[in-house]
Automatic annotation (TrEMBL):
The keyword Hydrolase applies. One of its GO terms (molecular function) is hydrolase activity. It holds the Pfam family Abhydrolase_6. Keywords: Hydrolase. This is Alpha/beta hydrolase. The keyword GTP-binding does not apply. InterPro entries: AB_hydrolase_1, AB_hydrolase_fold, Sec-Metab_Biosynth_Hydrolase. Gene3D superfamilies: alpha/beta hydrolase. SUPFAM superfamilies: alpha/beta-Hydrolases. It comes from the Bacteria.
Length: 237
């Protein structure tokens, strides 16, 4: 009975990364021992330009609104990639309801800074120029290399079909949120083509945790190494 009551009390909040959506967690959720809420950033599957005018606050507010409708007393935040920036703001908003924070190859800015502030040189200088010229939807080949290199053809096709360009503000604006004072875990992805391991190690340092797990996967372990990721998250929770 106690285990059942705990499951009603605690949950896992899943925050995806840029261009993606809650669909990336579909295979993982049934393997988790706690109820899970996979949230969506604004305007999934609604065209290439609909998010252009959104601010960073629009993203964090969208997630907060979804959590406020979730009948869970307290929860662990699991944030992937740029979802780490949004996750910090969500953690700040809900305060003591947040009982843990997990970053999966996630960007964790120090001092409330932006996604771009976390990039190594020279990417930190080049990224704003790329966003200005090319926008936030990478070419098909770049998505294949960065996100899909260890996925099945079907999984890669799903990523391509569902990829949603984000607002530049998601990457450029400061999250203005502190690192939560809760138990934390950083999951480092050893074959990640998006973020090098050196950057991930720096993000774990920014998160102020020495609790680090590793997976031999690319940027989307919830698809390529689902069982392994589920075990890590269940052990943490």
């Amino acid at each position: 009975m106690k285990q059942y009551e705990d499951m009603k009390k605690n949950g896992v909040l899943l925050i995806h990364g840029a261009g993606l959506g809650s669909f990336i967690w579909d295979e993982l959720i049934p393997l988790l021992n706690l109820p899970a809420l996979a949230v969506d950033f604004p305007n999934r599957k609604k065209g290439d330009k609909v998010n252009l005018q959104l601010s960073f606050k629009h993203y964090s507010d969208a997630v907060i609104q979804q959590v406020e409708q979730w009948n869970i007393e307290s929860f662990v935040i699991v944030a992937h990639s740029v979802g780490g920036c949004v996750g910090l703001k969500v953690a700040e908003h809900f305060g003591k309801r947040v009982i843990g924070f997990v970053g999966i190859s996630s960007v964790i800015p120090s001092d409330g800074n932006s996604f771009i502030s976390c990039l190594p040189f020279p990417q930190k200088v080049i990224m704003p120029v790329i966003l200005k010229i090319a926008g936030t939807k990478p070419p098909k080949k770049a998505i294949e290399i960065g996100l899909c290199h260890d996925l099945t053809d079907m999984q890669c096709q799903s990523i391509m079909e569902n990829f949603t360009p984000e607002s530049k503000a998601l990457f450029k604006e400061k999250c203005k949120a502190e690192i939560p004072n809760v138990k934390k875990l950083y999951i480092k992805l050893l074959n990640d083509q998006e973020f090098p391991t050196s950057m991930q190690e720096k993000m774990a340092e920014n998160m102020n945790t020495q609790n680090i797990a590793t997976i031999e996967s690319g940027h989307l372990p919830m698809l390529s190494h689902t069982n392994e990721l589920a075990k890590i998250l269940n052990d943490f929770c």
